[in-house]
Amino acid sequence: MVQCRKWALPTFFSVMTGQDHPLAPAGRVPPGTARGSERVGSIVQRIVEPVLASLGLVLVNVEVRGRGPKSLIRVVIERPVDQGEGAVTVADCERAHMLIGHALDAEDPIPHAYLLEVSSPGLDRPIRDPGDYERFRGRLARFKMAQPVRGQTVVIGRIQKLDGTHVWVEVQAAKGNRGGAATPVALPLAEILEARLEVEF
Questions:
Q1: Which residues have a Cβ under 8 Å from the Cβ of 37 and sit 6 or more positions away?
Q2: What is the pLDDT of residues 105-142, one digit of tens each?
Q3: Are 141 and 100 in contact (CB under 8 A)?
């Protein structure tokens, strides 16, 4: 995983919403103001995706941690499927970091200093979109479930297919059960809290 970090410059203003803002034209929320129920992560995602597209990159995830000047915005990027896995370089992260920083400064969605981090997914990348399950078919993954599946809330299995509402994985027999065959298990998409690739050696 490659990373690039930088402190963003602080911006100071009074936080107001919509028409309460003294400089707000009708129907427009000015930069830096609150946006009701729209979350910071969603705002950052909207800003970041076209920036990455201009660089031939795609967004894997946006993570916002902390509050106030110690907030961290982590942007995880990769290359499109047709360009292969693991192709993101330090130079890619540096270019993306610079342009994302400029875009965030222009729209100013965060009313304080923050740390911007741009990185590649790493070997244990998260699996988030339906297309990821097709892309990583045959790979070993770890799933955290909201409800136990076969008595387990953590399931490790090899991705087989996606049928619309379930991900089918092949789970190896428990240790000590020599000769036990792998078992296909259906995991409800709606109950997957987190899914990540497992590192295999």
A1: none
A2: 998 888 888 899 999 888 888 898 888 898 899 999 99
A3: no
Whether the per-residue pLDDT at 12 is higher than 80: the answer is no
Burial of 125 (0-12, 13-18, 19+ CB in 10 A): buried
Sequence-distant (6+) residues with CB within 8 A of 38 are none
Q: Does domain 130-197 have CATH number 2.30.30?
A: yes
- Give the C-alpha separation, 89 to 1, whole Å: 9
Using alpha carbons, select from 13, 10, 45, 18 the residue that is nearest to residue 34. Answer: 18
**Residue type present at position 57:** L
Whether the full predicted model's pTM is greater than 0.90, yes or no, is no
Domain definitions of the chain by residue range: 3-119, 130-197
Annotation: CATH topology of 3-119: GMP Synthetase; Chain A, domain 3 (3.30.300)
Question: Closest Cα partner for 45 from 28, 59, 65?
Answer: 59
